[in-house]
Design brief:
The protein is built from eleven helices and 19 strands. Strands 1, 4, 5, 6, 7, 10, 11 and 12 form an eight-stranded mixed β-sheet that branches. By secondary structure, the chain is an alpha/beta fold. It has two domains: about 200 residues, Alpha-Beta Complex (Spore Coat Polysaccharide Biosynthesis Protein SpsA, Chain A), CATH 3.90.550; about 160 residues, 2-C-methyl-D-erythritol 2,4-cyclodiphosphate synthase (60s Ribosomal Protein L30, Chain: A, 2-Layer Sandwich), CATH 3.30.1330.50.
């Protein structure tokens, strides 16, 4: 099957799914769903290559999992994502599937491939057995089909069909609009689509996530700057100086961000918020942490706890610990009892002991989001 490229679409926002974790990042055992699905579907035939279309902000994390597939940034719509992927396709045929259809049986792939020359788009479908009403009129159910993916298309025809501003919900609709032949084959009731969180119970091939924990370490250092307000852990510290930095310089939050990113293998703070980007000039670090927490949740993790050590000569931190805990608890969406803060001096040694700056070390523990307990 070296004349077919397989494309797996998983760049969506899961806006209808209703959980903090995107459906493509739900864990089945130790694998995110997008990897589990791609591994299985790509094994069904000898494809020329497999392309995974992911969200721009998640591509580098996806690439950590495997070198077996080519990764492409998706667009704001399914159609844009397909167009981006087609730029990497050199084969005469392309098979496109959605990660939301997680349990497609192999026989559907075989039927698609066997019929590849029977039309410009080969589409699996199901007949409707229930009575069908459109608006207020009952219509003949024999004329109604439930369309599924994957769909196998002639690459040139599909590329031409998508050169329009009109939005189509699948490949067959776009190709049919050109007047090209659509070939329908038998689909499968096992190709259940994961759209809403309640659909999880009907997806038979999913396994419960492992109970592993993941640890990340973060450290940040900032010089003091006279006349700048000091913010630590999102709390204003009464002092005559703050932290020299591109943002507000909240050294504690920056350390926590790196510990969270470390625990989920997603790089560091500079990759998300470059210090040469004017968009983050004097940025409120609480907003940056909120963004990272949302990211951590979206790619399939829960925050278990955070442990912090603040290394600072002045000012005294003990009076602010309670407020810092409350601030972090709200942003991290965990209890204050899951946050530990320690503070110490440098015994007047080094740049910290000379009262030139401060450093914060943090350790974060994450675990997979357990969708079986939702």
């Amino acid at each position: 099957m070296k004349d077919i490229t397989l494309i797996i679409l998983c760049a969506g926002e899961s806006s209808r799914f209703g959980l903090k974790t995107k459906k493509q990042w739900l864990r089945t055992a130790d694998e995110p769903l997008w990897l589990n699905v791609t591994n299985r579907l790509s094994s069904y035939a000898s494809f020329a290559k497999t392309i995974v279309v992911g969200h721009q902000n998640e591509l580098s994390l996806m690439e950590n999992f495997t070198d077996d597939f080519e990764f492409v940034a998706g667009g704001s719509t399914r159609q844009e994502s397909i167009k981006n992927a087609l730029q990497k396709v050199t084969t005469p045929y392309v098979m496109i599937s959605d990660v939301a259809r997680s349990c497609i049986p192999k026989e559907v792939f075989i039927r698609l491939i066997e019929a590849k020359q029977d039309g410009s788009c080969i589409v699996p479908m199901l007949q409707v057995s229930d009575t069908v009403v459109f608006e207020t009129n009952t219509i003949e159910r024999e004329h109604v089909k439930l369309i599924q993916t994957p769909q196998l298309s002639n690459t040139q025809v599909l590329t031409k069909a998508l050169q329009t501003q009109q939005e189509f919900t699948d490949e067959s609709s776009a190709i049919k609009a050109l007047g090209e032949k659509i070939k329908y084959i038998e689909g499968s009731t096992k190709s259940q689509k994961l759209t809403f969180c309640e659909d999880i119970q009907a997806i038979e091939c999913l396994q419960a996530p492992l109970q592993d924990c993941f640890t990340g370490f973060g450290v940040d250092i900032h010089q003091f700057e006279e006349g700048k307000p000091m913010v630590l852990g999102g709390v204003a510290i009464e002092n005559g100086f703050g932290f020299k930095a591109h943002s507000d310089g909240d050294v504690l939050i920056h350390s926590v961000i790196d510990s969270l990113l470390g625990a989920c293998g997603a790089g560091d703070i500079g990759e998300f918020f470059p210090d040469n980007d004017q968009a983050y000039k004097d940025a409120d670090s609480k907003k940056l942490l909120e963004h990272i927490v949302k990211f951590v949740h979206s790619v399939g993790y829960e925050i278990v706890n955070i442990d912090l050590t603040i290394l600072i000569q002045i000012p005294k931190i003990n009076p602010y610990k309670k407020a810092i805990k409350s601030s972090l608890s709200q942003i991290l969406q965990i209890g204050k009892n899951k946050i530990n803060i320690k503070a110490t001096t440098a015994e007047k040694m080094g740049f910290i002991g000379r009262k030139e700056g401060a450093s914060v070390y943090s350790v974060a523990t994450l675990k997979y989001y357990d969708w079986t307990r939702k």
